[in-house]
Amino acid sequence: MAKALSHHDLSKLIGSIYDCALDPGRWEHALAGIRDALNAQTAVLHLDDLANDRLLIYRTVGIEPYWLEQQAKYIPEIHARLLEDLSTWPSLDVPHVVSRHTPQTYQETSRYFQECLKPQGLVDVMSFFLIHTPTRLAGFAVARHKRQGIITEREIKLGRLLLPHVRRSVIISNMLDIGTVERAGMAEALDALTCAVVLTNERGAVLHANRSAKHMLRSGGPIQDVRGILQAKIPSASKELHSAIMLAAQDEASIGKTGLAVLLSESGLPPVFARVLPMAGGDLRAGMEPAAVAAVFIGNAPDEHDAAGMLARAFGLTMAETRVLASLVAGHTLAETAASLHIANATAKTHLDNIFQKTGASRQADLMRLVMQIVPPAGQPGP
């Protein structure tokens, strides 16, 4: 049985995960830490193109090159099985564990299990979902060898603890849209970004605001500089923002979901979100200048999938309903949506009817107007 992870080791692991937000080349190191903490044989971070059954990003540790090459043959089967399971999945925060969620009869007849996993001695796989849309699936997973046994509650609990940190790092890395951030050039690198970024100390004092953030502060946007302290116009948003900054300063392992997506905009306005990246820990972030404890990223305009996710949270849509909505917002017909999601037309129609009932819309045009109310014009930063 694996020993419990000490608080020091947990903080060090989470620090390595956050370093990946600024330098994606560090993911192999972070994945090795995740693998070891979960007492696993392998670990992967992936971004899948579901429409074309291919991998867009695939960072791995513990998998021999031969098996990496072989695994490519089974991607269509892997995608089909995951999509089938996700169609009834309760939440993206719940991990998928083969030994608990994949029928033994399927494992015994699956080419992937019998020809790829079994020859490697792998007996269990735990997958965590970061992002899921009709065309994309991002997540991280670990696999255990027979000598390590199947996944237990310890690994599930620890994996769920790591999930929001991995998700935050991946989201912020996507927002950056830059390569490695040089230690000496943090301010210059941030100034080149289109999204607003503010570096703060533990009190929320503004140490540096990039060009986009300065414009937002001057133009009366959703954030403001009040006597040198970063504030949101909405009091509840300011409270969560400062709570996340304090956690980032004290112990980034405790930040969890706090500050992962802080809604800054007022009701009736296009939504603008802030995401807090801890800066005091890790090998990379702690050495940067200016020496900040937190970087607050004010997000770019969300795409249709982000909009579907926002509506889902606002109106309590299920995962299946959210996938149907995202496909419709992307411009697909209901029949095309059903085909891409591998569900019957009648099932897609039932999901759409449920969306209408929950949102108060009576037709797809009304639904699109509702979506457009929360999505800023394409390519435009938030106010």
Automatic annotation (TrEMBL):
InterPro entries: Sig_transdc_resp-reg_C-effctor (IPR016032), Tscrpt_reg_LuxR_C (IPR000792), WH-like_DNA-bd_sf (IPR036388). It holds the Pfam family GerE. Residues 314-371 form the HTH luxR-type domain. GO terms for molecular function: DNA binding. One of its GO terms (biological process) is regulation of DNA-templated transcription. This is HTH luxR-type domain-containing protein. It comes from Mesorhizobium temperatum.
